Amino acid sequence: MTELIAVVDRETCMGIAMCRSVSPDAFRLEDGKSVFVPGPDVTDDDVLEAAENCPVEAIRVLRATGD
Amino acid sequence: MTSSTNFLAAETWSDPHPYFDALRQTDPVSWNTWWRGWVITRFDDVDFLLKRSEYMSANTVATARAQASPEQLSRREATFRILGSWLVLNDAPDHTRLRRLTNKAFTPAMVAKLQVGIEARATKLLDAMERKESPDIIADYAHPLTLSVISQMLGIPEGDRDQVAAWGTAITPLVLDGRENKERREVAEATLIKMDEYFAQLLEARRAEPADDLLSQLALAEDQGSLLSENEIIATCILLIFAGQETTTGLIANAVLALGENPSEQAKLVAQPELMRGAVEELLRFCGVAFAISRVATGDFELRGEQIKAGDKLLLTIGAANRDPEQFDEPNRLDITRDTTGHLAFAGGAHYCLGGPLARVEASIAIKLLLDRHPNVQPRPQDIEWRGVIVAREPVALIVDLEPS
């Protein structure tokens, strides 16, 4: 699991799927918009890479604080 | 099914939509014997393939290199080396690595900082264009505007910009599918070598004395972590010069033409400038420059009953997909207030247009300032010559009447 989680702003997301290309394990498209799918294979780098490469800056990175 | 149409022949290319509309209806995955590959025209298929890069490779250079004779390999060394490092022609992981550094220069936030400079430049060009007898939207306005923006971003000295721009145009035959004549190809290859030398020198100068430009940032990235090789940096500069001017120039010209042919939409935009954001998206859908993208299948797969084999060429026709009635109501009508969500003018997936945010800002400013001053601007009746390349559909020149009588 990751320490970081991605939050996709659905208003800004244009369904370009850059995140899915950069981090295929961490994102999928639903109704033409990107959704973050946490899972055992997803790394913090996947989250950061996707956020950094999003052409419309629709991905925010948050630190998970759950105990 | 199979077709043999040369869709770049003037009779089709001057108005390609009737041909591609018919193809989409009757043969959406069509083997074209002239192009020697599959032509894909439905929105769903083009969208799916663009966003599932596991099916396809962008690396058409590798295919050409594998087929080249030893003599060609040595004669075309620079072409294979430089185009082989273009991010548009690479797959992950090289593509991701090449793209990461340049991505940051083209984010919406970075591009917003350029706005004031673009407006000032466009205003000066309009002043000069108004004194011309036959103002050409391309040569007098859109091209000098986009060239100055990308040159400034990169850090090309002002005195070199016209030369570099001419080089950028001259290398076109190398990129566009090899259907150009031999003489132009040889000029293009010689030009590429000149650009290679020029950017090597400029890079050296920026290393010695960094400036506030992309070239200096790339040079710094090379020094710090050697993420990019020198050849990759030079290749990236050449790519940006090539892709940073022709494309947005064509978008602005296509937009002025489309608005001129749809005077009620132009009047609506003049009356309600707040519609500009949506209007640019609709113009991208309706007449975006990138008409098609060429790819190579990486494995065998089936698409609408057709068997695609590994190594087959695929032509993803963005221009046709954006006119698919299954996706957009009355797709052949320009409607600046329509919902254009999902249009593919900048492609999608890993290769989504790096310069998209910049193109949007440049086009918005260019169209707004033109219409502010000349709300009735109209293309002069003329035989438009369209550039004969499948990846970009744009006129060679577009003469307008700024104040039609």
What does this protein look like?
The complex is a heterodimer of chains A (67) and B (405). Chain A is 22% helix and 27% strand. Chain A has 2 helices and 4 strands; from the N terminus they run βαββαβ. Chain A has helices at 18-22, 44-53, and strands spanning 4-8, 27-30, 33-36, 59-63. In chain A, strands 1-4 form a two-stranded antiparallel sheet. Chain B contains 19 helices and 10 strands. In chain B, the strands form 3 sheets. Chain B has a 6-stranded mixed beta sheet, covered by helices on one side. Chain B has a two-stranded antiparallel ribbon with strand order 6-7. Chain B has a two-stranded antiparallel ribbon with strand order 9-10. In chain B, β6 and β7 form a beta hairpin. In chain B, α13 crosses α14 (214-225), α15 crosses α17 (276-287) and α17 crosses α19. Chain B is globular, with a radius of gyration of 21 Å. At the A-B interface, α1 and α2 of A face α7 of B.
Pick out its properties.
heterodimer; A: 67 residues; alpha+beta; two-stranded antiparallel ribbon; 2 helices; 4 strands; 27% strand; B: 405 residues
Measured between the Cα atoms of the first and last residue of chain A, the distance is: 13 Å
The largest beta-sheet of chain B arranges its strands as 1-2-3-8-5-4
Helix/strand-derived category of chain B reads: alpha+beta
Radius of gyration of chain A: 11 Å
Mean pLDDT of chain B: 91
Task: State the assembly state of the protein chains.
Answer: heterodimer
Estimated share of beta-strand residues of chain B: 5-15%
Percent helix among the residues of chain A?
10-25%
Mean pLDDT of chain A, rounded to whole units? Answer: 88
Low-confidence stretches of chain A: none
Uncertain segments of chain B are: none
**Biggest sheet of chain A, strands in spatial order?**
1-4
